[in-house]
Amino acid sequence: MSVLVKIYKYAFILLIFTTFVFMTGSLYGIDIKLFLAGVSSFALIVILYSQKKTINKFNLALLVSFFVLYFFSALIGILKGFNESYVLGELIGLLSPILVIALYRSDFVSIITLKKTMLYGAFTYSLLKVMAATLISTGVLSFTTFFNTIETIFGYRLVSMLISQEYNIVRIYIVNDLLIAFTPIILFSAQKVIKSKILITITYITLLLSMLLCYSRFLLVIYLIASLLPFFSIVKLNINKVIISVFTLGFSLIYLTINGLPESISKRFSTSDINNISSDGIRNEQFEAIVKMISENLFLGAGIGSYSSQYIRTEYIYELQWLSMVFKFGFPAFIILVTLILLYLNKNFKINYKSLISISLLLSSGLFNPYLQSTVMGVAMLLMYSEYHLLESKEKEVTILRSLEL
Questions:
Q1: How far apart are alpha carbons 141 and 228 in whole angstroms?
Q2: pLDDT digits over 116-137, tens only?
Q3: Confidence check: pLDDT of 165 > 70
Q4: Please, which residues have CB within 8 angstroms of residue 295's CB and are 6 or more apart in sequence?
Q5: Angle, vertex CA 12, rays to CA 11 and CA 17, nearest 5
Q6: Pair 176, 210: CB distance under 8 Å
Q7: How many Å apart are CA 325 and CA 337, to the nearest integer?
């Protein structure tokens, strides 16, 4: 049985790590994440069954409820004549974060191990992104070659723009950046995972550069808040607080000071910039269209997989994801969905101002961007759980004993 535990443990750890580092779930057409999720799921089911491990009945009931709600909405989508592949694709996307969360067992993978895996993943991803941007900026690597390489390896087509024409700095933005935006919460946690102050500093600078390259207004603001949040209740001055304060102050001055503000950065927050107008214009059009579709599908909804090609950029996924869920699920089912999420948070998380701010920011990402339907959202919620979790007393003892592992 110890072999199965190791299989589950390392498959799950690799699933978390690859979610941070890989731009998609596949590598040269092979779905690595699906394979790792399948292996860890099988191993965990066998372990729980053979060892008669206790299962949180409340969370299990919530899991079943999510499944029933999603499959019902998928059935509605099929009955209303929407493309079956789109229905299946969106169903898998909705189930992905739930399955990632459900797969985690703190008695096999400790909180410390989970945090370490996330920090290693965040640093690896950010370092690779900074290196790629540097090679492109210096002319060693062309953006076209980089673009084609990413598409070949991960099957992902980058959408980019020039951040700085003078220095040939290009935007490298991927859904994974949502994870990087929240990583400072565990990097500067009171429960230190990285002991070396030098490594903490290097990691933070690398994450900061990665976030600047993502060039997302929303994520940049989140990163700033996440950087400050761990220190809101710390009174004693220490080197970590000094480090984060200095870099955060510099970061704030760059984005909030009008005089001397770099043109490329200020343009990203400008309401008159053509790129921002184009991006925000699509969202405004989606808002008007979705409000109309809500009124037409108020009770049963249009179903998962439904969309209007006139107001969408990526198949069935809207930027305004939360609002689109209202017309896809229908108002009653959407209220049930929100209730299930709140019940999960109340049962599994410490409720304080830090957790409320962090989780609210995470869930609000679905207001403007399609983050909700991916393993990234599931791992992001586990990141929150690793910092704000509620463990049973026995689980706490196990976590403490296993905290020296890895």
A1: 35
A2: 999 999 999 999 999 999 999 9
A3: yes
A4: none
A5: 95
A6: no
A7: 10
